[in-house]
Amino acid sequence: MSIKTPYVAVDGIVMLYDSKEVFKGIVLIERKNPPFGMALPGGFVDVGESCESAVVREMKEEISLDVQIIRLLGVYSDPQRDPRFHTVSVVYICKAYGEPEAADDAKKCFIYLPDKIPMEKLVFDHAKIVGDFLRNREDNT
Amino acid sequence: MSIKTPYVAVDGIVMLYDSKEVFKGIVLIERKNPPFGMALPGGFVDVGESCESAVVREMKEEISLDVQIIRLLGVYSDPQRDPRFHTVSVVYICKAYGEPEAADDAKKCFIYLPDKIPMEKLVFDHAKIVGDFLRNREDNT
């Protein structure tokens, strides 16, 4: 049986808090590899690994944070969303404490308050994903 | 770059209604291929196809119904959930009218009211998925 499906990736919307539970912002990265630009931290899911484990691992690898998954935001699977090849991204809203530090595929880390996120600099469909998160967040408040 | 990720599939929880908007039940299939047993209708996502398009296509192919997606239920990615290989399933709650008719990978179709679903006959992790749907449904009412 020959099966060919899109690649599966995970991305994290990491809500960063300080030790007093004050919300500091969302973590974005500057990508080290093409497509260049800013993005949510994330990466491919390994065979033998759940999507939840993958997002925890990728956040540790790229932004050096131990994240707690809050919930699934959505699944983004438009064939055009990744300019390299077809990738389905499973996006989780996460919570973390501490200072992000760029590593692996991330060149640099940034912390942005929601209304300061530079949407025009986001690669892939990450502006759409962040937009969905922000709308969804407003609906819940 | 060599990337290896799990396969991506979609499954549908199809809520069937009659023309008077009376809920008739959930559609299950008897599988034609291994693993044998009952399951939610579903299948693999093609490269170049979104998950939403895939679930609409698969429901048409397997149970001969035109479904409308209501919302995403969840993403199921436990590496052990599929006995054949690692498959990530993106599960959508859908609505349809008419009579399901088995085709393609489905040998037979069944319509079950939620409290009559034979959970013990469901293959993969579909009993867990259906359980999540039923709990979620109760929460919303």
UniProtKB/TrEMBL annotation, chains A, B:
Nudix hydrolase domain location: 6-138
InterPro entries: Nudix_hydrolase (IPR020476), NUDIX_hydrolase-like_dom_sf (IPR015797), NUDIX_hydrolase_dom (IPR000086)
Keyword set includes Hydrolase: yes
Pfam families xrefs: NUDIX
Protein name: NUDIX hydrolase
Organism: Sulfurovum lithotrophicum
Domain of life, source organism: Bacteria
One function term, GO molecular function aspect: hydrolase activity
Swiss-Prot/TrEMBL keywords: Hydrolase
PROSITE patterns named among the record's database cross-references: NUDIX (PS51462)
Signal peptide coordinates: none
